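Handout for the seminar on molecular recognition.
Each group receives one record of this type.
Step one: identify the two inputs.
Step two: read the structure output and locate the region that could contact SAJ.
Step three: write two sentences on what you found, then compare them with the reference statements printed after the record.
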Amino acid sequence: MRRKDIRVCVVGLGYIGLPTAALIASRGATVVGVDIDDEVVATIADGRIHIAEADLDGLVQKVVFSKKLLARNTPEQADVFMIAVPTPLSGNKKPVIDHVLAAAESIAAHLTKGNLVILESTSPVGTTEQICDLLAELRSDLTFPGYETDSDEPDVSIAYCPERVLPGRILIELVQNDRCVGGMTPGCAVKARNFYELFVRGKCIETTARTAEMVKLTENAFRDTNIAFANELSLICDHVGIDAWEVIELANRHPRVEILKPGPGVGGHCIAVDPWFIVDAAPHQARLIRTSREVNDSKADYVFSRVRALIDSYPERKVTCLGITFKANVDDLRESPALEIVERLAKSCGSLIQVVEPFVEDLPQALARHGARKIELDEALDQSGILVVLVDHDAFRRVSTARRNGAIVYDTRGIWQHTPPAPTRGIAGQLA
Ligand code: SAJ
């Protein structure tokens, strides 16, 4: 397979699908990028992007104008089909793979002998097998892994290869990170590895589809559990009146201790979601993973109560929440604990609540509806009110101690470390 001879069809042009499609196209392959959202397709066809990601705008513009990336609303024939659509959680914390199955169904009619189908979406264990069953049912004229008749090699190879890139560094990590390539059969894994090696510099390691599915869930559950430790520690330190940031900094000087950072909770569409896929698959075994999710989810309640207590203690001060995105220097609001906290504050305190958020143009309706308004950082600093740091954007980190002098500070991210914790008048102990 030579890069420039390959035609790839990427289904789903979101945070993973679009950068992946653009990167592969930039390496010479012709890529058909597919999305069911006509607005997304029109934006990309115009050489523009609908998400914020470092360096993605220039890359997309280049590959669209050179006709290497073609945006479409239905799949077309290709050599390799990649599925990168969302796998959300249902209300009762069960994985929903409907989009994955719909994407598989949408490519079925376009499959031909020799094709490779790769699932990249984070998925519960067994999803790749389900895709295989679905395609075998829809295309009885082709053979699929596990359904071969007289030859070992199925007409269509199927593999699971999870994305593991960090928002904000996607284009770098797509190339540099090692990949775990899980084939439905060893032959499928080899085919998928050969494909990834065309644009990945990291090592591509073959395994089974089920193992690769579990590896992805494990990575995010591991991080969630580690953040839960930091969040629980911060609650304990608050309770006993010790600066959690100093404890972490000092403990991390031990050669085998590496505590992550506490915050207002865990957001984003990955770490706050994926561990539940494990809990769903093994509810009696996944006790620590479930508890970690609960610890991280409950942190937003705690932060909300602390801010409410500050407001009650200093009713004359204006309140500014710094940041509503799910993490630093991105525009993504999905599952954002900061947004959840500000929504609750706006609901209970209305126009008292102000927000500084350099990555979002207009405040979401849920905030504006209750009278919360967006202001500039300088205006917030001039007011000497209550400053609640919810996101560690670089712009907030740069604020000097002198500039925030006079404000009451509640820093949930520890960016203005070692500021003495803001006292809440007369309610010490109540928060504990
Ligand atoms: N967070 C903390 N404390 C920390 C680190 C993170 O509170 O010490 C919070 C962040 O503020 C954010 C959340 O956790 O709200 C998740 O942020 P993140 O930077 O840890 O991860 P994501 O969601 O941006 O990306 C993760 C990554 N997974 C791992 O690091 C194991 C990424 O590699 C995955 O590709 C991505 O999930 C995904 O798509 O699954």
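Reference statements: Residues 209-240 form the longest helix (32 residues). The radius of gyration is 24 Å.
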